[in-house]
Amino acid sequence: MKDEIKDTKSFFQEMSEQLYIYISKVSPTGLDWVFHIIVKLSLLVAIFLFLDFIFKIIINYVFRLFRNENRFPILKSIYQSKITNSVAHFTALAIVGSMHEAIFVGALKQTTIFIIRSVNLGLVMILAGMLYRSLTAFRNYFTIQQDYYKVMAINAISETVKILGIFLFSIVSICVVFGIKGTTIVGSLGAITAVLVLVFRDTILGFVTGIHVATSKSLKVGDWIGIPKYSIEGNILDISLLTTKIANFDKTISSIPTYDLLTTEIKNLQVMSESNTRRIKKSIFFNINSFKFLNPEEIERLKEINLISDYLIEKTSEINHEKESIGHRDKVINGRQLTNIGVFRYYAQKYLENDREINKENPIMVRQLEITTQGLPMEVYCFTNDSNWQRFEEIQADIFDHLLVASKEFDLQIMQIGFPK
């Protein structure tokens, strides 16, 4: 193998000498060295392009021959990210770098240094591109696996690695091109470390947020979220290192700093959607002046309502039994009494419990809230069996349509602000 390499170098060295003689004959006097460098540089580039083309064909063919995308999806992601092309570039340039001495035999020292540094710079750039494509391969792999939490983590990490990579490869490139030691450059950057931290504040916070969200699995791309701070509600389109894009339901797109996902209150409504349940939490305001005790005639009339018939019979029996042991039982204020608002509250509770669209595994409540200047709010608190937005609104509307009209049977008045006639 070594003999073959020596023979190859001897071939290029002999070709270089013949080329030098030919250029010296045809080029203008005094400019032969310029033409010499240009032609040989062109030759190096041509050899690189030829080798790169050959290696890409061979490597990609072998890769496609042995890959099994179903068993090894990582191979599919590697091929899609074109890492194999980077390997071909690196191999071709490394070979060209080993040939330059044979082609530029007898060249000036400055020319040799220029060629060496150019090749080394090219290798550094190819390695940087290979690192970037490796991150893309990981992202493609987790996308194929539909592991969106890890996709988000890779996005955060890749953005950070890209920035650090640009910084580090820039230092390495400067060292390669100018022949400076890396410690000299890094040492001179120590004085501006605080400035760098300030400049990359959002980047650092975005990186920390991405790792936190990925490990806690609290958010992912596609989730339906609400952010009260910005009055935003919609689906997450993208979580990058610096910004998070949210598609609002009004067909607009909002962008917020990614670190807000860690420092701001976020409501993740995706859990509700995935469980196929959605909460109803809505109140009806009643006029307190319409509240009253029910007399026997009204109780008898309300007993015809199936949902509260047994309740009224039971409560009437209990109240009559208690009144037998108290004085002045003819006075309605003495002892317990049934009220129209209390019976209506029980009716609303039973109505929800018998509604097929209401989830019975979650709390079902009809409760009184604190009295306001607008009246007494009675809140309906329950969960529907369907989280679809349109269907949810239909179920909620049906419930309140019924309760608002049914309240008239109990002689209750709904509070509303009227306009002057």
Automatic annotation (TrEMBL):
List the GO molecular function terms.
mechanosensitive monoatomic ion channel activity
Q: Which organism is it from?
A: Chryseobacterium indoltheticum
Extract the Pfam families matched here.
MS_channel_2nd (PF00924), MS_channel_3rd (PF21082)
Q: Which InterPro entries match?
A: LSM_dom_sf (IPR010920), MS_channel_C (IPR049278), MscS_beta-dom_sf (IPR023408), MscS_channel_2nd (IPR006685), YbdG (IPR030192)
Its name, as the record gives it, is Mechanosensitive ion channel family protein
Q: Where in the cell is it found?
A: Endomembrane system
Chain ranges of the Mechanosensitive ion channel MscS C-terminal domain: 351-411
Topology term for the membrane: Multi-pass membrane protein
Q: What is its main location?
A: membrane
